[in-house]
Amino acid sequence: MTMRARQTLLRISLVVVLTLGFVVAQGLHGERTAHAQSVQVSGPLAGAPAVIDQRYWRKMRLHIEPFFAFTIADEYSRSLIVGGELRFHFLDWLGIGGWGGYSVAQLDTNLTKEVQSKAPIAPPNRLDLPQQEDFPSQVGRLDWWSGVEVHFVPFRGKLAMFQKVFVDADIDLFVGAAFVGVEERADVQGSVCATDSQECDNSQLARSSRVAIAPSFGAAFSAFFKEFVGISLRWRGIPFKYNTSGTDNNNDGQIDSNDRLRQFNNMFTVGVIFALPPDTK
C-alpha cells in the first residue's frame, strides 16, 4: 500500500470515529435531559373515572346452577353426575354456596376391562380377585356428592367472540368441604378365601357404604350472555382415601379400611346459571 493510500484510510477512520463519538454523546445528553410528558385528556372523557356504570353480576344476587359433571383421571370407575348448585354473593367478589349431585351412571375404565378379561386367577391372589368376570363388582364407586364452599372472584372483564358477540366473564375461585357417598368392597378376612371358595366368591360382591368428608377446592370460568342467564365451566378437586380396586393393598392378608389409598378425585362440571333477581344493579 502506498503512503498516499495509507493517509487517505487514516483520514476516513478518524472521521468515522469522531462521528460515532458525537452520536453517542448526543444520546447520553438526551437521556439526562429527557422529561416525561403528561397526557391531557380532553373532550367528553376529561376527568371521567376508569369505569362508568359498572354492572354487578353477583352482588346481592342468588345464582341457581343446574349442572352435568363427570369425574376424570379415575382408575377403575368413572362417575357421570347430575346435580345443582346455589350461591349467594354479598359482594361482587365474595359469596358462599352449596352444591350436590347424584351419580346417574358408573362407567368402567379400560383398566377395569383389562383386569376383567386378562387377569390370572391363582391361590396367591384369590383374596384380591376371587372371580375374574366379577372384578367390576368389587371396585370402589362414588354414588353421591355434596358440599359447602366460599367463593372469591378476583378477575372479571369482557370477552369478545368473533369480534361480534361480547359477554361479561369472570374467574371464580372456591374452597370448602365436601361430603361423598363412597361404596367399597366389604371387609373380608384372608382365611375365607383359603378355606371356602363359595364364601370367597360371595365376598367379591359384598358392599359397604360410608360418607367421606374431605376438602374441596377449584376454579370456574363463567360467562353471562343476559342479565339473568350465563354458563359456567368448573373444575373441582376432592382428595380423600378409599379402596378403588377392592384389593388387599397393604398385603396384610385381609381387606379392610387400612387398604384405602389417597386419591385426588377430579370433577369437571358444565352448568347453566340463572340469577335472581333477574336485573343487574
What does this structure look like?
The chain is α+β, with helices and mostly antiparallel strands and 281 residues long. Helix content is 21%, strand content 48%. The strands form two sheets. It has an eight-stranded antiparallel barrel. A two-stranded antiparallel ribbon has the order 6-9.
Question: Would you kindly provide a brief summary of this structure?
Answer:
The chain has 5 helices and 10 strands; from the N terminus they run αβββααβββααββββ. The chain has 281 residues and is an alpha+beta fold.
What are the main properties of this structure?
21% helix; two-stranded antiparallel ribbon; 281 residues; alpha+beta; 10 strands; single chain
Q: Indicate the mean pLDDT.
A: 86
Overall geometry: elongated
**Largest sheet descriptor:** 8 strands, antiparallel, barrel
Walk across the major sheet and give the strand order. Answer: 1-2-3-4-5-7-8-10
Q: How much helical structure, as a percent, in the residues?
A: 10-25%
| Strand/helix succession | HEEEHHEEEHHEEEE
Number of strands: 10
Residue share in β-strands: over 45%
Number of helices: 5
Tell me the radius of gyration: 33 Å
Layout of helices and strands:
Elements: H1 3-33, E1 61-72, E2 77-91, E3 94-108, H2 110-118, H3 135-138, E4 141-161, E5 165-185, E6 188-189, H4 190-195, H5 197-205, E7 207-224, E8 229-242, E9 254-255, E10 261-276
Antiparallel strand pairs: 1-2, 1-10, 2-3, 3-4, 4-5, 5-7, 6-9, 7-8, 8-10
